[in-house]
Design brief:
The chain is mainly β. Helix content is 0%, strand content 52%. The protein is built from no helices and eleven strands. The strands form two sheets. Strands 2, 4, 5, 6, 9, 10 and 11 form a seven-stranded mixed sheet that branches.
């Protein structure tokens, strides 16, 4: 079992940057894959990026080249660096871990608007 707490969301202008953090309540060293999802109003939750314990990454086409996922096992933390943000990136961003069960954080709101 694990609890996940996201932070770092907020309001940013188009072209701006934010860094999201997801802190886990237990060591993530042995957790294979951790990911970031997002859900915009009226839309389904979608995978944004994920990272394996070995550092392999996957990105949705819509964020490739703009977002970077990373993990710091010593801090039990996964990050999502978001650059060149656009209004279409506006959503609630969720951290996710799949163990025997699926675990989600409470989400952090990202709003991109001028």
């Amino acid at each position: 079992q694990v609890q996940l707490v996201e932070s770092g969301g907020g309001l940013v202008q188009p072209g701006g940057s934010l860094r999201l953090s997801c802190v886990a309540s237990r060591s993530i060293f042995s957790i294979n894959t951790m990911g970031w999802y997002r859900q915009a109003p009226g839309k389904q939750r979608e995978l944004v990026a994920r990272i394996s314990s070995g550092g392999s990454t996957y990105y949705a086409d819509s964020v490739k080249g703009r977002f970077t996922i990373s993990r710091d096992n010593a801090k039990n933390t996964v990050y999502l660096q978001m650059n060149s943000l656009q209004p279409e990136d506006t959503a609630v961003y969720y951290c996710h871990v799949a163990l025997v069960s699926s675990y989600w954080g409470q989400g952090t709101q990202v709003t991109v608007s001028s």
